[in-house]
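In the design runs reported in the main text, the only information available to the sequence generator was the tokenized backbone. The following block is the verbatim input for one such run; it is reproduced so that readers can re-run the procedure and compare outputs position by position.
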């Protein structure tokens, strides 16, 4: 149903330009206020956020205003006009009277916009932006608004009565209403009706369905009988018609696709909803007040070039000097869209996992309570990392790691190596709350990631569901939070999410070893929980933390505590501990949701500032599950201009930091714009070393009238697939500028390969240096020596032994480089349709992957279409490649042969590398060094090319070495 969300977004954009074929429509633009009021959306969003604090319905109310505006003479804000002697207000039309609401919030938005940009932004555009922001802040999609509408000078109540769809409309009438205003009567109708996925409706809009549908004296037969009984109790015949109930019975305050599921089970509230499933320039003016036209209709439009000032008040006193370095603007230049990226991933995750919001905020809590907010909770076990994931409070309960991985991947794609995992957790927590109906706040950012974890401290510091109030208070004080407001406010995050029986079952049968249940537990609730979690039963069974609104972030948690329905002992202790100072706070938050939201935000910001690593502390992990291979990236060009004529010493000086070359702007720019470049560069090094050794021969171009160079770029294994030559050129140019004639192209490839692996999350190793460049290329030998994607295991083994590598560990380890990068359809399509001329697909290919690949690469289709070599973590260097082979998800035949060839000696190596990433990394580094030593040119052999694409004009090296050995980069 994810596509339905974006179908709805598209329909909303269409609906919001209902001026039809008018020339004015063409003037709408997303950049209309870019110079006159560039901050208009932010201004409106802030007013809306404040409104949400006291009125969860406001989002649905505002989008309804916009709908009801656009359906009457277009989107001109006519609905906002009050009655005057000349204006017959649409507010009193049948569909609006005593139901349209939110006018005061629009007034607040207009006032705020006028302060920043007087006389510039129309009320019609304010409604448009408010509608989009209402959807986004409620968990729905966001889109780019087309702006530039002007406000009408009149209203039309008669047309409102005629045009606006009614809650009692049949499908035929609904279709007519949509067609009449220029919308289509199927997709637009269904998508825009989906806005009833949040908000409320009054009994009077559906009560005829309950008792006398279509004057039959019977209820609507399309109404679910259980819902019918519930609604009859809420809205008795002849009762108060203004009583409200939820339009969406499942997630009433979230913008999601549950509305459509409701229709499928006959739980659409309004007849008009259920009918969708159960039926066989210079026009106008810029109003200064949205409720009335300007006093002088010829008033000149005023514009302002000044940008509204953004004021962020942060009153936090930290104990760490580094805390002052956190800032809401930390990524404003380096990754300005980071929050939107994370929100986008989270919104998709919500579609399949309603629990994910609560799970992510819990990860943030459990991170910050252990040595501060440094993403240590995300680290997996290694030989040196004792993962916090296996601490008692986290083991088999902490979850959401895969979603964090997805967020990290999306952020890395947009802003490589910029945003820390700790900040991703921070933003994800805030967005989880906001998308679940809770408050939003400005995140302070700039944290760095730790290089270690502490399972012991996690066991000591993290609050437990079995804690007494005294122990809870101590846990909060120990990490620097206060033991009353912070404790109660942050505990309020249990207003959504689930808990396993094992975390509260002692309360049900043997509380504090008394043999009796917890006396503070409501008796009815106790019986319900005993049925769900019988003594000796399955401890992993889940139930809601908040029995009232389990998926919404609100203040019902505190009402539950007052009613003795706190699920965990640690929750109920806040209210049931005699004389506790937390009781009054619970009562305040229970009665005043705005007070809870405000305190929660303050406490979340305070918790997020616990011991952050900033500046040069820690690192920016490339993979949130593991520390970087070597994060000491430094460069000093003063070291690169050398006078020493001995190549060995020169290379030692040049590569005093093995990362020096890769810190060139050329490489970073390439990595920023091309995430594939790292896999492409290591492939160049492989394909170089397999043909007469590692001599840079693969880089040579064909030369006109020179038959001595037969470029390897056009061999079968390289033609139209080898890439990255321009990046190597840029590296060479940068080095030649600093140290002319010293560093060979062969060594550049060797270092580029090591750095590509390391920068993608893999190991680092010491690269032996001192290679010289070949003066020729050999296309024929490239065709003979290079492994191909179509080879059997025997052929692969032959290719490796032919060049001097072993045919088991080297073969499997170096094949592991397919853990990142892409491959074209032409290199595996025969596996999909006609494997080995059988007319059938490769039987070793996973059936699900086969179906996906057949769609991507149809028979006879475009062979150059790309897909990921590693379908799990396509841009990270890890050991998932081997797990893919075990699941028959290897993309290339040459990959899958390593595991699927019966009795092969490569199978146990694959199994070892799949279960032990450290073993893979160590073997990979050893095999890379071994491959990098194949058939070297050193000493006076070959040359140091000035241009990697062609041999030097005089075939003489610019510098020579005193001996023929390789030295290590140090």
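Verbatim output:
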């Amino acid at each position: 149903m994810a596509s339905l969300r974006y179908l709805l977004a598209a329909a909303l954009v269409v609906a919001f330009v209902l001026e039809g074929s008018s020339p004015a429509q063409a003037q709408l633009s997303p950049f209309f206020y870019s110079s006159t009021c560039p901050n208009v959306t932010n201004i409106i969003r802030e007013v809306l956020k404040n409104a949400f604090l006291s009125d969860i319905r406001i989002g649905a109310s505002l989008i309804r205003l916009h709908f009801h505006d656009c359906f009457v003479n277009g989107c001109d804000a006519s609905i906002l006009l009050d009655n005057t002697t000349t204006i017959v207000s649409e507010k009193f039309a049948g569909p609006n009277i005593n139901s349209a609401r939110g006018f005061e919030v629009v007034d607040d938005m207009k006032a705020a916009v006028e302060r920043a940009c007087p006389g510039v932004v129309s009320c019609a555009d304010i409604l448009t932006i408010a509608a989009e922001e209402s959807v986004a802040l409620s968990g729905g999609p966001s889109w780019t608004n087309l702006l530039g509408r002007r406000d009408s000078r009149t209203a039309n109540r008669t047309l409102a009565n005629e045009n606006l769809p009614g809650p009692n409309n049949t499908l035929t009438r609904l279709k007519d209403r949509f067609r009449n205003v220029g919308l289509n009567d199927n997709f637009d109708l269904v998508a825009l009706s989906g806005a009833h996925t949040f908000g409320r409706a009054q009994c009077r809009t559906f009560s005829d369905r309950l008792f006398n549908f279509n004057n039959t004296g019977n209820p609507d037969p399309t109404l679910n009988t259980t819902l019918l009984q519930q609604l009859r109790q809420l809205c008795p015949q002849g009762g108060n018609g203004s009583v409200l109930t939820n339009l969406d019975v499942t997630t009433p305050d979230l913008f999601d696709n549950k509305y459509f599921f409701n229709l499928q089970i006959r739980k659409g509230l309004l007849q008009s909803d259920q009918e969708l499933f159960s039926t066989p320039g210079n026009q106008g003016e810029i109003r200064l007040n949205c409720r009335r036209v300007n006093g002088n209709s010829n008033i000149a439009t005023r514009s302002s070039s000044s940008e509204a000032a953004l004021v962020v008040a942060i009153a936090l006193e930290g104990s760490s000097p580094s805390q002052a370095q956190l800032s809401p603007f930390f990524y404003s230049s380096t990754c300005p869209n980071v929050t939107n990226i994370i929100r986008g991933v989270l919104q998709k995750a919500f579609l399949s996992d309603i629990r994910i919001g609560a799970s992510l905020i819990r990860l943030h809590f459990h991170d910050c309570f252990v040595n501060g907010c440094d993403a240590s909770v995300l680290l997996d076990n290694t030989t040196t990392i004792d993962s916090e994931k296996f601490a008692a409070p986290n083991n088999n309960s902490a979850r959401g790691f895969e979603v964090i991985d997805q967020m990290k991947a999306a952020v890395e794609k947009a802003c490589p190596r910029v945003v820390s995992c700790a900040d991703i957790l921070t933003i994800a927590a805030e967005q989880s709350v906001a998308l679940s109906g809770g408050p939003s706040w400005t995140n302070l950012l700039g944290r760095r990631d730790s290089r270690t974890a502490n399972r012991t401290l996690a066991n000591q510091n993290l609050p437990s569901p079995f804690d007494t109030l005294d122990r809870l208070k101590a846990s909060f004080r120990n990490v620097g939070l206060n033991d009353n407001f912070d404790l109660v406010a942050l505990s309020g995050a249990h207003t959504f999410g689930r808990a396993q029986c094992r975390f509260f079952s002692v309360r049900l049968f043997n509380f504090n070893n008394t043999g009796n249940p917890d006396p503070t537990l409501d008796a009815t609730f106790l019986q319900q929980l005993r049925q769900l979690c019988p003594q000796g039963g399955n401890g992993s069974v889940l139930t809601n933390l908040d029995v009232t609104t389990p998926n919404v972030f609100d203040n019902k948690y505190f009402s539950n505590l007052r009613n003795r329905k706190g699920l965990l002992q640690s929750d109920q202790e806040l209210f049931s501990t005699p004389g506790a100072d937390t009781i009054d706070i619970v009562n305040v938050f229970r009665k005043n949701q705005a007070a809870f939201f405000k305190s929660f935000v303050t406490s979340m910001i305070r918790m997020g500032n616990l011991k952050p690593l900033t500046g040069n502390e820690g690192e920016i992990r490339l993979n949130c599950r593991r520390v970087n291979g070597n994060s000491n990236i430094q460069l000093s060009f003063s070291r690169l201009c050398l006078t020493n004529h001995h190549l060995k010493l020169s290379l030692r000086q040049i590569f005093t930091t093995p990362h020096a070359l890769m810190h060139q702007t050329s490489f970073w720019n390439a990595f920023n714009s091309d995430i594939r470049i790292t896999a492409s560069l290591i492939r160049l090094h492989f394909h170089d070393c397999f043909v007469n050794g590692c001599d840079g021969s693969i880089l040579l171009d064909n030369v006109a009238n020179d038959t001595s160079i037969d470029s390897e770029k056009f061999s079968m294994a390289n033609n139209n697939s080898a890439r990255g030559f321009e990046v190597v050129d840029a590296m060479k140019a940068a080095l030649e500028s600093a140290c002319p004639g010293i560093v060979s192209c062969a060594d550049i490839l060797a270092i580029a390969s090591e750095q590509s692996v390391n920068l993608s999350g893999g190991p680092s190793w010491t690269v032996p240096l001192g290679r010289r460049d070949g003066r020729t290329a050999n296309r024929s030998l490239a065709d003979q020596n290079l492994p191909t994607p179509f080879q059997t295991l025997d052929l692969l083994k032959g290719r490796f032994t032919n060049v001097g590598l072993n045919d088991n560990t080297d073969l499997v380890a170096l094949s592991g480089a397919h853990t990142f990068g892409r491959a074209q359809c032409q290199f595996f399509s025969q596996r999909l349709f006609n494997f080995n001329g059988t007319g059938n697909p490769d039987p070793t290919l996973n059936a699900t992957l086969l179906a996906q690949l057949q769609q991507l690469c149809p028979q006879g289709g475009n062979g150059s279409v790309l897909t990921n070599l590693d379908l799990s973590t396509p841009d990270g260097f890890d050991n998932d490649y081997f797990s893919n082979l075990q699941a028959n998800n290897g993309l290339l035949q040459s990959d899958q042969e390593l595991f699927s060839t019966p009795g092969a000696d490569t199978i146990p190596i694959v199994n070892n590398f799949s279960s032990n990433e450290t073993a893979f990394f160590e073997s990979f580094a050893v095999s890379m060094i071994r491959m990098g030593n194949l058939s070297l040119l050193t000493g006076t052999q070959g040359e140091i090319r000035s241009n990697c694409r062609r041999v030097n004009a005089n075939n003489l090296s610019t510098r020579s070495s005193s001996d023929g050995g390789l030295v290590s980069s140090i």
